[in-house]
Specification:
single chain, two-stranded parallel sheet, 51% helix
Amino acid sequence: MAHTDHQSIRSVLCREIAGTIGLLADEHDFSAMRRYRSFTFDDHATYLRQVEAVLRSRAAHGGHTTLALFDPEDYAAYCAETGLDPDLPA
């Protein structure tokens, strides 16, 4: 069996992880999420820059990422229907 260091194995595995980011593309949706304590961003422009940085980092390391528009109203309705607290992490 060939020897492969743990860092190399971990890097390969990380490239295999696909991710999805729920993007708050406009100010209205961003403002709606600010009512949750767990939502830590104060400024939409800063939020978008940080999302872009994450996407660039994942792409630079071979990560696959899908963007989906996040709808705060649908999220609140889903949480209400399922009895989940919308302010707790998944």
